[in-house]
Amino acid sequence: MSDSRLPAHIEVGAIRRLVEGQGGFASVLYKGERDAGTILLLTIQNGVEAQLYERMPQMDGTRSWVPTSPKDVEKYHEFSDYCAKRHDLDPDLWILEADVADPARFIESLGALS
Question: Of 3, 15, 48, 92, whose CB neighbour count within 10 A is largest?
Fold first, then answer.
């Protein structure tokens, strides 16, 4: 079975454009392997209610964005430590932050990129 995923840098660029097209702001926190890096997506709404997502393989062969770890804005250093440790374990990892008006709806809209 061949892997038909988009290269990571193209997917990250598409996510950033989608965020900005919806009036939000996106920033790359960690830049990973250009073609095959895993992408973590931190969604925030006006600087609060943050949630970290990772696209995970599903039983039917698709890949869906699933919440992996909530970010407590009051404990930013703990979240930063978590991201640094993940990146140390997987230097190919991308971490993208997206400040969007409706994070749940935004995550749903990413299904088209799968």
Answer: 15
